[in-house]
Amino acid sequence: MGLLKGVDFLGGFLLISLLVNSVMGIGVNWGTQATHPLPPATVVKMLRDNGIQKVKLFDADTTILNALRNSGIQVMVGIPNDMLSSLASGVNVAENWVSKNVSYLVSNGVDIRYVAVGNEPFLSTYNGSFLQTTFPALQNVQSALIKAGLGNQVKVTIPLNADVYGSSSDKPSDGDFRPDIHDLMIAIVKFLSDNGGPFTVNIYPFISLHNDPNFPVDFAFFDGYSAAINDNGKIYQNVFDANHDTLVWALQKNGFGNLPVIVGEIGWPTDGDKSATVQFAQRFNQGFMSRYNAGTGTPMRPGSMDVYLFSLIDEDHKSIQPGNFERHWGLFYFDGTPKYQLNLGTNSNGLVAASNVHYLARQWCVLSPSANLEDPQLAPSVSYACENGDCTSLGYGTSCANLDARGNISYAFNSYYQIENQLESACKFPNLSVLTNQDPSLGDCKFRIMIQTDSPANLGGGVGHLEKPVGLMLLLFVILFMFL
To answer: Phi and psi of 104, rounded to 5°?
Structure first.
């Protein structure tokens, strides 16, 4: 599918060793590209309250790692793609990084189990930017871990997008690695196998549905698909199983059938696209968790899996180039409030909200009732508000799709006002805006009040594929078109 091992004694031993040394409970991705992140201590408590035993980070944020000390939570710490070149340049750079971000923290109670070298560095959209640096960086980090005496305790891996492999047909058994990086992938896989590291893959059935208007909706979920794929007796009723096993076949036919596989990211967004709804997210994630907790696995890899859900909390400063849904992957809203009922198998009462969250004043910035929609200042004001706020909940198929023109403008103004910490100057759009203490939310469209934070927003790391928000102009044209 476009989306889409021989067994030996040593390979089986390595797999058993990895399982014995790892917690098999569900993990989550904790991204930090938010304008108002929850305090790390609050998030760690939320993780523990929800029985989440593993967390995957996208960089080595000292404050977050310190908050994870003695928490009982296993950590995969990430190295951003922009560091790969320096790490590839010499093992001494990797040794310094490991000393600061692994050795010191491990000795002080942080249970680091993996180092993720890069994040989806071979995405085709990167045009080969990291092809020369990823593998050398991986090798140098591994050497540094061995020198630090951590080679058996901390394993290296590279979280890769599922686009590094594919199938020439609709059958997983025709899977192999992407032709343009085939030799590089085999070298990396061999290195991981030799050093006891897992293959980490990010699989997104939502993207399959988003990218292909003809994709069968039911095939994205786990509650049955009538036109199942029969691959030599192995039956595939959902795209996750088919995608995962395409990778397993790619590993097997290249001689690495026993290499452990970690699903580094899997989830479903709740806004910003017609398929990104709370109902679909609940259906997908609960369907996946039910299979996960039952230890179903996939046709090629039955049994328990090692998985990190994507993601824990919404991030309102992620790049929206892939789509407006990028800021809405969380199981929780930005303030740690659960979006829907979800049984992780750790708490029968569903998700547990963050505790002791403090909000800004109960007030909103909206379009003045006396404002004229023909005002020439309107378009540039909305453009400014959306560029510096978050308007991804506006537009066709979103949670705020039913707002009229005035409602759209009010939403944009309020988003900017809240992100600017309700500064008086942030609701001074000329003859257009006014403050109100009446909640303008309408149905599923929530006009949020931002949370208080003790420190500036952390915008340097996180999950997004690009460093800065881009693609806003297209969104603005859509919004402004709706006004006319």
So the answer is: -60, -45
